[in-house]
Amino acid sequence: MLPLPPQDPLHWLAALAINGLLIGLAQRLPVLTRAGWVHAGVLGTLLWGSLGWRGWLAVVVYLALGSAVTKLGFRRKRELGLAEGREGRRGPENVWGSALVGTVLALLACRAPAGAVPLLLAGFAASFAAKLADTFGSEIGKRWGRHTVLITSLRPVAPGTEGAISLEGTAASLLGSALMTLAMGALGVIRGWPLAALVGGVGLVATLAESVVGASLQRHWRWLSNEVVNGLQTLLAALLAMALVPWLLPGSG
């Protein structure tokens, strides 16, 4: 199990200082807006403070992979009107839409009884696997998807339509979920191939469910912004993982 750091003021002060320094050095990178970097510093402090450097680094890997895939074919996506705004830079709403669920689970894990920690970490890992799956599927699908259809009706639609899927995008979602799961395993957040398979599978399922929400509800309910839907997707992934872990690994919850 991931070794959790001591929850004392000195550790949290160190987490704040380290993240302040790193954000100061990294803010010139074309990844986040200026406000996005500030919020990333808050996020990083909470993650380092609750899970230590391994949990923090897992989310840095998520950010790096998500930013990299966003830049793939960016010029062509911009020509088609499908590129992310702000040259692909993420703002505070993107930071928390992706990471709020995982952050809450991290804060719970550092205070929970030992028996509950593996469940919370599985939910943490699944939330980011689902979000990277969504990013990979969206960015690859709308640029290289050959036949894009609405997930609820399989009716052909234009790339970038809410709820649209393609074979290429779905394969990219599976790859994104797998890469995030491997990173979580390599850093010790989750352990064992059965749990890794569960987290990776849940990441893909939650991404497909997010497409269903986009196709059926998001276009009708204005309050369902992309950030809200992202939060719901990561919450679904976390809840599914935590519900299935005791079934997959009896005695773990």
Automatic annotation (TrEMBL):
Keywords: Membrane, Transmembrane, Transmembrane helix
Entries under InterPro entries matching the protein: DUF92_TMEM19 (IPR002794)
Membrane topology: Multi-pass membrane protein
Residues annotated as transmembrane: 53-74, 95-114, 196-217, 229-249
Record localization: Membrane
Family assignment from sequence similarity: Belongs to the TMEM19 family.
The protein's name: DUF92 domain-containing protein
Naturally occurring in which organism (per UniProt): Cyanobium gracile UHCC 0139
